Amino acid sequence: MRMTALLPLVLVGGLAGVSHQAQADTLRCGSQLISAGDREFEVQQKCGEPAARNMVGYLRSPDRREEVAIEEWIYGPSNGMYQYLRFEGGRLTQISSKRGN
Fold first, then answer.
1. Which domain does 78 fall in, by range?
2. How far is CA 56 from its chain centroid?
3. pLDDT class for 100, splitting at 50, 70, 90?
């Protein structure tokens, strides 16, 4: 009985730290899933053309012999949410969501 009384407090406390921007490892595009590590062309096949593409810059490899492009794709809004996909060297590295204004 004591455990059930604490459960709502744990759930509320866990949600208090949630920000307006959420990060995820996967994203559903229709009936398809994309995840970190996917190539740009795979994401475009599953999700279609993004609403916007932004070249963020370049990242140097640890050995400083090559640079990889960093690009951000934006999808949405879908139910008021924007999806931000970050690609480094043509591979999906980060998926985040943010509610639009």
1. 19-99
2. 15
3. confident
**Distance set, CA 92 to CA 14, 18, 49, 89 (Å):** 28, 23, 15, 9
Q: Which tokens sit at 95?
A: 């998926």
Find the helix or strand (DSSP H, E) in which 10 lies: helix 2-15
Distance CA 10, CA 12 (A): 6
What six digits make up the tokens of 71? 């690009």
CATH number assigned to the domain comprising residue 63: 3.30.1450
- Tokens representing 8 are 């709502």
User: Which tens digits make up the pLDDT trace of 66-96?
Assistant: 899 999 999 999 889 999 999 999 999 999 9
User: Is residue 7, in this structure, part of any structural domain at all?
Assistant: no
Structure tokens at 42: 């795979």
